[in-house]
Amino acid sequence: MFNRLFTTILLIVTLALALAACNGVGEEAPSVLRLATTTSTNDSGLLDEILPDFEQQYNARVDVVAVGTGQAIALGEAGDADVILVHARAREDAFVDAGHGQNRRDVMYNDFIIVGPSSDPAGIRGTTLAADALAAIAAAEAPFASRGDDSGTHTMELSLWSATAHAPAAAEDWYFSLGQGMGDTLTFANETGAYTLTDRGTFLFQQQNLPNLVIMVGGDTIAGNADPALLNPYGVIPVNPDKGGINNELAEQFAQWLTSPAVQEMISQYGTDQFGQPLFYPDAE
Fold first, then answer.
1. Which CATH architecture has domain 31-109+234-282?
2. Are 182 and 115 in contact (CB under 8 A)?
3. Phi, psi of 38 (to 5 degrees)
């Protein structure tokens, strides 16, 4: 009797443990990292390629908020992100100098290009300097699609316009300030026959869906881009933990992982099979 009862109890306990294992009961829940980043890192497919490695290594779940650089920085300032990955160097340095971020580390770079309709109504194809191309677009009053979203790309566009004699106003009927991410802006330009400024990585990744757009300024590769103003560096910054509620340990692990030799190699290879060139070039020290 006793032996039979003991055997029954042992069987019940064994089954309970097996069910718990199947249901994941007892496993440590993944730690959550809030990453605020630019639409270009997301729209280019890079994050989908590399983030699973981080999540597996650190038993983490990365919650990505892909917005313009200005919005990503604002999320960091408010303590609503643990780490930011952005591309507007002066604003990144100001973020750290103001005490919102712990430090900035170089991650990668690509470049900006100007794309437009193959008919090229402003005649800018092959222009060396982007500012000269924008001046020609303004002179021709050819359609131009601006992200208009306080992103790193929008910041670069405004910087290039400042080097011309014409800073377009949103009221001008040829200048479209969209308040959209890079992917949506490219789609708009493709559908309306407009020029736009884009990072090369996002354009190459989405080019098959943009049959009406071709590269006008910037050459076919980053090596063919003769305008140094179009260089596009990205940096990673863990948010200052003094803000409270910041997963600082995981944010630091993410920054170290992103700048590690193994992940830098992953970045260097991303896009080469499909496009014959990387979409980003590693730049960590």
1. 3-Layer(aba) Sandwich (3.40)
2. no
3. -85, 160
pLDDT reading at 25 higher than 70: no
Full-prediction pTM beyond 0.90?
no
pLDDT in tens, 96-149: 999 999 999 999 999 999 999 999 999 999 999 999 999 999 999 999 999 999
Q: Which CATH superfamily is domain 111-230 in?
A: Periplasmic binding protein-like II (3.40.190.10)
Q: Which two tokens stand for residue 242?
A: 């003094």
d(CA 36, CA 69): 9
In SS3 terms, the chain reads as CHHHHHHHHHHHHHHHHHHHHHCCCCCCCCEEEEEEEEHHHHHCCHHHHHHHHHHHHHCEEEEEEEECHHHHHHHHHCCCCCEEEECCHHHHHHHHHCCCECCCEEEEEEEEEEEEECCCCCCCCCCCCHHHHHHHHHHHCCCEEECCCCCHHHHHHHHHHHCCCCCCCCCCCCEEECCCCHHHHHHHHHHHCCEEEEEHHHHHHHHHHCCCEEEEECCCCHHHCCCHHHEEEEEEEEECHHHCCCCHHHHHHHHHHHCCHHHHHHHHHCCHHHHCCCCCEECCC
